[in-house]
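Explain this one:

_____
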Amino acid sequence: MVEQSSVHPYLNWAKQRIDEMDATLGSLEAKAGQVQTDSKAKANELIAELKKQRDGFQAEVKKQAAAGEAAWKSNKAQFDSKWKAFEAQVKTYIDTVAKQAPQQQALFRDVAAAQVKTWREAAETIQDTAAKFAAGRRADVDAAVNKMKADAAEAEARLQKLNQVGQQSWGALSAALAESRKAFDSANQAAWDAIKKAVPPAA
């Protein structure tokens, strides 16, 4: 149980990135028909590359899913690098194809919604895991889950506020998503650390 629970923060981290990749691709594909004719070929090329990167990332995560914490830690830099490559490709798409604010706002909205959904799912998963502990061992986990839910609500409010303001640069929108992602990573790790502490030592 300890080893399995120690892997969960990495699985949640990876799931959060995959959810964002899926939301990004869904948003870009939905808006592809609105791209100017002279940019359609470039848009299709960039979307195909983003799909390839997402599929590669997802395949690596599936392969890694059964690995222990040490294996995840040793491969985390590789996953980070693949995530950054995906983000760089999205920026290239924004800079070359989706220069109009409405397209950027739609992308932001879709990715922000994916982030909020992942926060909620992670909190539910952690809460379900915590429910298996005796009441005396659950207090710290429950506190971490409650903090995670509060952080999620705060992140959602910030993202919604930014979305309502509109006409923000992609740099500002992307920075807000990165801030929310960082907060998720921190809350996710804190919750799983609380679970590891709550797991009774092996006899």
Observations:
- The CA atoms of residues 22 and 54 lie 8 Å apart.
- The chain has one domain: 2-198.
- The chain is about 85% helix and 0% strand.
- Helices lie at 2-31, 40-64, 69-96, 101-130, 135-165, 170-198.
